[in-house]
Amino acid sequence: MDRPSAERTSRSRNPAAPRLAVIPGDGIGPEVVNEALKVLDVVGPVFGLNVEVEMLPYGAEHYLATGETLSPVEAQRIAGFDAVLVGAFGDPRVPGGEHARDILQGLRAALDLYVDERPARLLHASLTPLEGRRPQDVDLVVFREATEGLYAGVGGVFKHGSPDEIAVAEELHTRRGVERVVRHAFDWARANGRTRVAMADKANAVPAHMLWRRVFDEVGREFRDIRRDARYVDELAMDLVREPQSFQVIVTGSLYGDVLAGLAGGLVGGLGVAPRAERHTTRPALFAPAHGSVLALARTDAANPMAAILALAMMLASVGAAEAAQTVERAVRAAVAERVTTRDIGGEYGTRAVGEWIAEWIRVMS
Question: Do domains 1-121+270-366 and 139-267 have the same CATH topology?
């Protein structure tokens, strides 16, 4: 049965169970999240994992009906969960995006989610536009600093709409902010058997980026077993397409990270198969598909649920269910191999059919 997306529900409390807050959001968000939760319903009994799920209503529909958005008090309550799973946000009926801003920025502030983790793993050779590439050739992760840089929102517009309009956006970097995301990238690389970390900047044109160069070099010297490679972002982007196998971990600021993660996603099949996580090393993380709300596909049963299902796998790994997480990813790979996919990646199946096939594969094969 499909889960409600706009009313609050909760499973019975079990103090030993991981607690997952779910905000399905707007557009295709509720549809893809619903398929991820179908998979979770199968994973639980198979692996003896009892995840408590609380559905939260915050999204455009709820905002338009009630005027209520995610408050700071509610964001702090959600910070008491073990993880957060969200769908997608954005609706033209809320042109200012107030509800989305309050949800995403509110949770980032409450949890200090300074790492945006964007894995790009090629599930099947048929998904990449690069000729002759195999899954082992494209397997990397982009770590993007998520609280500073150009996305910190420092600046504004003066004389809006006039011939003399001025728009200012200031790029903000702090030693603390840069160091903690760079250190996270090296720590992750070592913990996951990776031997190379690259850093992208534009220090030849933006003197402030020398802070990234210095920090990357200083932190990197603590990790003698890992090769470090500082690159200009345009050079790195070109080589990411030409030689994706040479990259394992990329760390960079907010803007370049967004662009490079999107590029890497395009190399593995697009945003329909691209999950992400927003993390702090000691606090609950937020997991989501990398795509947006795609209003044109809402209620057409055409949205690709794989990114949301892979985001669920990342969540399972974060709460200590590594075997379950690996099984979910194997099930998605199997669906791609069997061409049980939506149209965006060459298949003829609908959203629900893809989710049900993946859930059934886990039930039968585990």
Answer: yes
